[in-house]
Amino acid sequence: MTRAFAMIMAGGPSEDLSVLTEVRSEPAVPFGGKFRLIDFPLSNCVNSDIYNVAVLTQYKPRSLNDHIEIGKPWDLDRASGGVRLLQPYRGGPYGDWQRGTADAVRRNLDFVQLQSEEHVLILAGDHIYLMDYRPMLRQHLQTKADLTVAVRRVNLYETHRFGIVSVGSEQRIADFQEKPKRTRETLASMGIYIFRKQALIDILQDTDYVDFGKDVLPAMLKGSGEVYAYPFPGYWADVGTVQAYWEANMSLLSESPALDLYDPEWVVHTRSQERAPSKIGPNAHVEGNLLSNGCRVYGEVQRSVLSPGVYVAEGAIVRDSVILNDTSIEAGAVVDRCIIDKGVTVRAGAKVGDGDDNTPNTDMPEQINTGLTLAGKGCVIPEDMVVGRNVVIHPFCGEEAFGKRKKVASGKSIGKNLR
Amino acid sequence: MTKTIAMILAGGEGTRLTVLSEARAKPAVPFAGKFRIIDFALSNCVNSGIYTAGVLTQYRPHSLNDHIGIGKPWDLDRSRGGVRLLQPYQQRKGQHWYAGTADAIVQNMEFVWDNRADTALILSGDHIYKMDYAPMLQYHWETGADLTIAVMPVPLEETDRFGIMQVDEEQRIVAFYEKPKERDKGNLASMGIYVFNASTMEKRLREGSADTPRVDFGKHVIPAMIAAGDRVFAYRFEGYWVDVGTVDSYWATNLELLQPEPTLDLYTDNWPIHTRSEERPAAKIGPQSKVVSSMISNGCVIRGTVINSVLSPGVYVSPGAVVQDSVVMNDAWIGPGVHVHKAVIDKQVMVGAGTVLGTGDESVANMQMPDRLFAGITVVGKGAVIPDGAHIGRNVLINSGRDESAFPNDRIVADGQTI
């Protein structure tokens, strides 16, 4: 009998992912060809024998709902437990929209109360990692902790991006700093928590804490709670920015990637689309790629990750890019260092990701400045159009959105932000 | 209101496919990478709106049972109707295996009546084609036929492989010859697709006795119905239809899919072929690899060269290996430096480093099966382990599960040999 159930946070707007999250929530963003980010926590749960899982949604959940449905691919379509989608609702005791992760759980405290398991595993829906939660749960039970936080070592120069913990004897957490400017500690919280159920209820009921990292964890440390760290040595990536998302995809192309998707002992389950095998044409040139089923490649594809159903015409070139489902790259087009969302048409002769001008995107200079060009879902890039770097083409832009121009300079945006 | 039930005959041995159908029934033989042959009949049924189907098994059904399961991939897991596997069973009055196609049906007439069907669509589980059965059923009801047979013209020199018929101007069948030796009977061939009025069918099947056998549809039932004056009509079908009877045609039918625009379109039309998709990540094409004119399924890892071949899920091609003009099934492992040419390699085969497979004289037919293996194709059965540095000729048959000890000391297997 498993002693914990899981709650996966899947409601955030994740603005840093630009066009990818304009049409869907971050956990529903495709990854590694045929997966979506939420597949990782969901698969980790079932592979760790946790068959009672709630997914908390708020921001643009439709794509996520379609993906999870009744949980069939994860064997979570069950009579007892299984997967449940928890939407925001009106009429509860705590007001309307959820303001953060802890607030989202607070709105569902009645659900937490009702579960028969005594411990709650809180997970993020947008992290990529393969982790057995059972040893962490075992430690949590042995130490009789109120809260156990999974932590990992990060580089000193990265500590400002994470919640950093200091650990005393026997993995007990002594101190916590949220995104510290300067610190000597390098143990970062992974946003994975196991709470004793009653401790979770006590800390959320009748308080106003919004976020687990910012509010709840410091409050637990200040109070009389027993808080422990659980070090996790494996691969873990938070793909919260377009650069991190692109890098995580590209890292799968190495000879033996840190993230092993081919391990039969730890299968990442997903809703597989029904597609024929990928087909590679007589004059095609494919090197260093991931190709999903249903792809048809007649041109050149190098160091790229292609989702199901992508079409690359003869004479087209795709390099160092992530191309999502059913996008079609027509003859003579060149796609270089791009993230192209689903159902995009790159017309013949277009050049996307062109030149060396690395002017950051004018709307999102902080987030889009590494030379990646993004094309949103369903847009059409006109024939012979030249698109520079750090360009954002918002979803569903037709050819008319480009007007009379023949070139889109680096750093520009096309179309309307759908957020 | 009429109701149609599909009865899919899946019990035959398919001996001409040699080792491919040794451990599995012919309908369960993999095809086009991720499909199995029976997927076509099952998908045609559901795409035609027929959601009640019986699959009649007899020979080595395990692989087929696993594949069909409760029919989920075809949406045939239903509370009313759905798919049912019908195995031979014992009765009070003796016990007998299915003696032939018609005998298998008559032993399961109760299944037809339990589903309250009045029209029976009899299909073969080992044909590859896309067909909408709805117009054929419409035609059957409009003509008030007792039996409608789908027909297509075949080359005159192949008429001895088929049931050949002659029709009058109303398409009513006046004469039927099962596999005629003479070439003068016309070229209108039965596709083994029959629509029966269920009660007439039962009446004719129950007439069977030692003198008037009703064991096989082509040999006994159809001629008897024509002789008795039943209304038997032909329905002309135009389109792709293949009975992959031999290793040669199995190999050729697979490789035909690699044409730029094959007759059998698995990618773009709205007649999806459903199958039980294995859960595998996208195919990985290594930086040092070369892949042209091929179909690569999910879960494959390619580090060598693949030319003009069809690879099922999970095939590993080592660096320096070359696979050309071949069909390679699930999870086969092709070692470093291996050369494979014109071969059909079954699941989980291991080809040791440096082995050359498929080299030599194509005209030397297999000694044991000169009538089945003569076109230069070498066949390796499921799970065979071929030692390092072996030299294997053409038309060679390596039986399933053979390992190094079965090979000669010098590891040279001449053309036409069998291991």
Task: Please give a structural write-up.
- The complex is a heterodimer of chains A (419) and B (419).
- Helix content of chain A is 16%, strand content 27%.
- Chain A is of the alpha/beta class.
- Chain A folds into 2 domains: 4-240, Spore Coat Polysaccharide Biosynthesis Protein SpsA, Chain A, CATH 3.90.550; 279-414, UDP N-Acetylglucosamine Acyltransferase, domain 1 (3 Solenoid).
- Chain B has 2 domains: 4-249, Spore Coat Polysaccharide Biosynthesis Protein SpsA, Chain A, CATH 3.90.550.10; 279-419, Hexapeptide repeat proteins (UDP N-Acetylglucosamine Acyltransferase, domain 1), CATH 2.160.10.
- The mean pLDDT of chain B is 88.
- In chain B, the strands form 7 sheets. A 7-stranded mixed sheet of chain B has the order 5-4-1-6-11-8-12. Chain B has a 7-stranded parallel sheet with strand order 15-18-21-24-27-30-32, with no helix packed on it.
- Chain A binds chain B through residues 32-35, 73, 252-253, 255, 261-262, 267-270, 272, 274, 276-284, 286-294, 296, 298, 303, 305-307, and chain B through 32-35, 73, 257-258, 260, 266-267, 272-275, 277, 279-299, 301, 310-312.
What attributes characterize this protein structure?
heterodimer, A: 419 residues, alpha/beta, Spore Coat Polysaccharide Biosynthesis Protein SpsA, Chain A, UDP N-Acetylglucosamine Acyltransferase, domain 1, 7-stranded parallel β-sheet, 8 helices, globular, B: 419 residues, 7-stranded mixed β-sheet
Please give a quick description of this structure.
Chain A is α/β, with parallel strands linked by helices.
Q: What is the element layout, followed by pairings?
A:
The complex is a heterodimer of chains A (419) and B (419).
Chain A: E1 4-10, E2 30-31, E3 35-36, H1 39-47, E4 52-57, H2 62-68, E5 82-86, H3 101-106, H4 109-114, E6 119-124, E7 127-129, H5 133-142, E8 147-153, E9 163-167, E10 173-178, E11 187-196, H6 197-204, H7 212-222, E12 227-231, E13 236-238, H8 242-251, E14 278-280, E15 285-287, E16 289-291, E17 296-297, E18 300-302, E19 305-306, E20 311-312, E21 317-319, E22 322-323, E23 328-329, E24 334-336, E25 338-340, E26 345-346, E27 351-352, E28 373-375, E29 380-381, E30 386-387, E31 392-393, E32 407-408, E33 413-414
Parallel strand pairs in A: 1-4, 1-6, 4-5, 8-12, 14-17, 15-18, 16-19, 17-20, 18-21, 19-22, 20-23, 21-24, 22-25, 23-26, 24-27, 25-28, 26-29, 27-30, 28-31, 30-32, 31-33
Antiparallel strand pairs in A: 2-3, 6-11, 7-13, 8-11, 9-10, 9-11
Chain B: E1 4-9, E2 30-31, E3 35-36, H1 38-47, E4 52-56, H2 62-68, E5 82-86, H3 101-106, H4 109-114, E6 119-124, E7 127-129, H5 133-143, E8 147-153, E9 163-167, E10 173-178, E11 188-197, H6 198-206, H7 217-227, E12 232-236, E13 241-243, H8 247-256, E14 283-285, E15 290-292, E16 294-296, E17 301-302, E18 305-307, E19 310-311, E20 316-317, E21 322-324, E22 327-328, E23 333-334, E24 339-341, E25 343-345, E26 350-351, E27 356-357, E28 378-380, E29 385-386, E30 391-392, E31 397-398, E32 412-413
Parallel strand pairs in B: 1-4, 1-6, 4-5, 8-12, 14-17, 15-18, 16-19, 17-20, 18-21, 19-22, 20-23, 21-24, 22-25, 23-26, 24-27, 25-28, 26-29, 27-30, 28-31, 30-32
Antiparallel strand pairs in B: 2-3, 6-11, 7-13, 8-11, 9-10
